[in-house]
Every structure is written in C-alpha cells, then in structure tokens.
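Provenance and format

Records in this collection were gathered into a single text stream. Each protein contributes a sequence line and a token line. The two records reproduced below are adjacent in the stream.
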Amino acid sequence: MTKVSTSVTINQTGLAQVMATAGAAWGNRVGRAVVNAMQDRCPVDEGRLRASLTYTITRQGNTVVLRIGSPLEYAAYVTRGTGIYGPRKAPIRPVRAEALKFPTPKKRGPLRLGEKAVAKNRGFVFAKSVKGRPRNLFMVDGLEAVFGKVTVHGD
C-alpha cells in the first residue's frame, strides 16, 4: 500500500478578496431590502425623507461595512422625536420671535363637491408653543423586518 501525502497552501490575499466580494454582494442584497422596508414605513409629507433613504458599502481592510440611513438633518428629529416627546422633554417655544409660524396643514383625501384645491400659498398658523412630535422608529422597524428583533443603543 502506497502512502500519499498532500499539503494545501491558502492564498490569504485571494481568500480575503473573495470574502470581501461576497460581503459586498451580501451588503447590496441586505441594504436594498432594509431600505425598501424603511421606505414602506417612513412617514411622508413631501417624500424627501423617504427618497433620501439609502445605503453605502465600504471596505475597511478585510471587513465590509454596510451603512443605512438618510443624510437629511431632520431624519434624526423624526426618529428621536421633538418637544415633550424628544430628548429635552420640553415644549418647543420661539427663540427670536413672539410666535412659531407653520404653513396651514394640507387637505388630505379627495375634494368634496364644490370644494376647490388649496393653492400652494395656503396661509399660516401661529402658536406660542407646540408639544412636538413623538418619535417614529421607522428605521428600526425596517431593520427588524429584515433581521428580526434588534437592540437600539444610544437612544
């Protein structure tokens, strides 16, 4: 009986490149799925926040990093809440004026018989203070739709 001896040499650089390519493919698949889930749950007024949701994939050495979110500054206010519902737990009051000024809310739904569409310049509502808006965890909900239960840190 003849003995056969073999040895295997692994090309570490080639293996790392194959793993990074596989990680990037995984990141694209997961990134798109999470962004779609977040967009389905995103609150919409004009649609800027929903349209801004995106993901990026970067390679740091042998690690592939997937970042998902929005570059819009107000995305943080939507997800953390504002006023009494936000981190400060206090009503929103004007700083440099006597009152806060907001556009009149848009009419939702179909027009009633004899009702005309509201012009773009709708008028304004004034207030000495407002409660703010409760947080909307649509980003966390989108992650959970793809990955299952997640834990949020730093909130």
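Adjacent record:
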Amino acid sequence: MQTIINICIPLISALIGGFISYFFTSKTKKYEAVLKFKEEKYSNLLIHLQGFVGDTTSYKGKKMFFEEQYKSWIYASDEVIVATNNMIQLVIDSQGKTPDKEEGRKAVGNIVLAMRKDLLGRTKLAYSDFQYTSVHMEK
C-alpha cells in the first residue's frame, strides 16, 4: 500500500503541475496574440485619424477612418469606443463651421490616450501630450 502511495502522489503532483503550467502558458500566449492584434488595429485607426487633422484632412482619409472605426467595435475597449464617438460627435456638430481647434485636439488626444490605456494598462500622459505635426508636401 505504501508503495502505491509513493508512486501515486508524485504522479498526481506532476499531472496537476503540468496542467497548471499549460493553463498559464496558453493564457499568456492568448493575451499576447490579442495585444498584438489590437496594437495593429489601433495603429491603423490612428493613421486614418489623419483624415481629420490639419493639412491631411480629406474625404478619403475620413472614409478610411470610418471603415476602421466600424471594425473597432469588435475589439476596442469601451474607453476607445467612447472617445471615438465623442470625436465623431464633434465633427457632426461642427459641420459647416470651423471646428474649435482645442476641442478637436482634445478629442483626438483622448482617442490616443484610451488606446494607450487599453494596450499598456495605464499611462501618465494626458490628451494634450499627443501632438500631430502636419507635413507640407512640396509640389
């Protein structure tokens, strides 16, 4: 009987340890894959935000942004969705007039900030730390 116990306890311990190790490894890999996916998608969304900013404002840029924004409902955090919706509302409210530059800067900065928080968990930056520099193309 003692021999059976001496064999079973290490075997059971090895099985439980292997399961726990597998569980945490697979969970970590899944988290890393989701993080990489979100990083790529947020990058696309951020690039297309240029359609609303400075000299890069264009119909095509806005259209591409909205295509990415619709897709973001599948993967983006609630904070990113809310920040994006706030910017879209600002655009709708300012149609036909010049939008307030500071409100626009705040809306875009809040989107970027929400993305950082979703990807990094926390940040010490504020919306005002995000700066977009418009580059003029020579003709």
